[in-house]
Specification:
The protein is built from nine helices and twelve strands. By secondary structure, the protein is α/β, with parallel strands linked by helices. The chain has one domain: Aldolase class I (TIM Barrel, Alpha-Beta Barrel), CATH 3.20.20.
Length: 306
């Protein structure tokens, strides 16, 4: 019997392209003007909205290996095809998530909705968002609230818990960058996460965070209960497609751009690995002295601990 030769490279690549996670940016425009938002820097480069033709091309290219699609922005609800695209994907048995500021109610309910909860703390937006959240919840949408944390939010823990208990199945926390990386910020993150978890609200620290801003007690608790990590997990098999439908990035924070056609012959992990490692090897901000050598590296936050 002749045993066929196995191409290990092809086999490995095939495994890496299964279960892709697509983040689609239909527009970088937004109806709000939040400080420190990444969308502003991309808008001049991508002023046009994603066309329906390019959306279908994206779907056709990845429909076999992508089980879920997530729309982000800018504000994706501004895209005139957002409702049609959700319905289209759900009819194809795809899971659909939308990352929104919550001020514009979607006409078609996604499976998951991630709301920038920070806007709930602003009186100008609060009522509009709460009204939308009530409708999403009544329609069985899985709601996650995302809070971008700075030291001032320690005074708003009670309000965050109240809203989260009423509407959200989970909460994600991320330090607002750039912020002063100090023990006060670490204490704020810990206080909020601990309070949420103590109220039976699933809570996670959603992106790499310098571990040295936490005390040993805080760090152990957050690592055990809230998925705290110091090392960015990229590259993975997730990637972002820009509004031109042609350029892809590993995430919105890292502006490493490649042409979408390169993903026909390479997995996202392999496509972005070299560039991400180059970022990690560049010396960023000075770090505190600690005993956590080698455990931290977050390219999007502009820090590197060695």
């Amino acid at each position: 019997m002749i045993v066929p030769e196995i191409d290990l490279q092809t086999t490995l690549q095939a495994k890496e392209t299964v279960n892709l996670q697509l983040y689609i940016v239909p527009t970088y425009e937004c109806n709000l003007a939040c400080t420190q938002c990444y969308s502003k820097k991309y808008l001049p480069e991508y002023p046009a909205y994603l066309s329906w033709t390019n959306f279908i091309n994206i779907y056709d290219m990845f429909k076999v290996n992508a089980k879920s699609f997530l729309f982000i922005g800018g504000e994706p609800s501004l895209w005139k095809f957002i409702n049609e695209s959700i319905l289209f994907l759900q009819n194809k048995n795809k899971k659909v998530s939308v990352f929104s500021n919550g001020t514009i109610l979607l006409g078609v309910m996604p499976d998951d909705l991630i709301i920038n909860g920070t806007n709930l703390l602003r009186e100008t937006e609060r009522n509009r968002i709460l009204s939308s959240l009530a409708i999403y919840r009544a329609n069985g949408v899985n709601i996650k609230l995302r809070f971008n944390i700075d030291s001032t939010m320690k005074n708003q823990v009670g309000e965050i818990i109240k809203v989260a208990k009423q509407y959200a199945k989970s909460v994600s926390l991320s330090i607002l960058y750039p912020s002063t990386l100090d023990k006060q910020l670490g204490e704020t993150v810990y206080c909020l996460a601990h309070s949420l978890a103590s109220n039976s609200i699933k809570t996670e620290i959603s992106r790499a965070t310098p571990l040295c801003i936490f005390s040993d007690k805080e760090r152990l608790y957050l690592q055990t209960n809230c998925f705290l990590k110091g090392m960015c997990k990229l590259p993975t098999n997730s990637f972002l497609v820009n509004p031109d439908g042609q350029t892809v990035q590993p995430c919105v924070e890292l502006g490493i751009k490649r042409h979408i056609d390169e993903l026909k012959t390479s997995s996202p992990k392999r496509l972005f690995m070299k560039s991400i490692n180059e970022i990690r090897n560049n010396v960023g901000l000075q770090c505190f002295n600690c005993n956590l050598t080698g455990e931290c590296s977050g390219g999007c936050l502009g820090y590197r601990l060695k």
